[in-house]
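Hey, I was hoping to borrow your eyes for a little while. I've been staring at a protein lately and its backbone has me curious. You're getting the sequence in one-letter code plus the fold written as tokens. Would you mind checking whether the tokens look sensible for this chain? Here's the protein in full, and shout if anything looks odd to you:
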Amino acid sequence: MTDNDVKPQRNAQRTRAAILAAAQDAFSLRGYSDTSLRDITAVAGVNSALVSRYFGSKEKLFEAALADLLKSDLITTVPREHFGEAMAAMLLAEPRDRLNPLQMMLLACADPGARRITEKLHFEFVVEPLARWFGPAEGASRAARFVILASGLTLFRDLYPLPALTADLDDSTRRWLAATFQSLAE
């Protein structure tokens, strides 16, 4: 074998990460039903058989992609006295530092399998940790209010944009949003 015959080494971790990142982008922009494995593997630059190898199926890939984005610690590690401002800043950030899992979740609701996965992961990774963080007295109710506010903002800012919620968000709306989020932490 000559130097010209040397095949590049496979990097399983890098390949898996590329597939996961491409899936997160696709599922967040087009939804589960309108995304094919070919779309994902083309962006990732890998053979479509590698999805089966690393994830098993499109549903399992969706589950891994969503689980990777659902990070309740981004919420529950914020000091309570700055909670409202931090949540408003995170949800209104431009450009987004990371994909918004809420958009991926909202776009998944048309497919029964993706919807079941979304419900399970959302409860496990977001609602339960938030309810514990908010506390036993009203934790579940406050977690539900948080989800309503965050998902409504995402829906009408990113998927069905209302002009009042675009990048030029007025200060009074931003203050209202921060104060509403803050009221959940008190």
Summary: The first helix runs from residue 12 to 30. The radius of gyration is 19 Å. Residues 63 and 97 are 21 Å apart (CA to CA). The chain is about 70% helix and 0% strand.
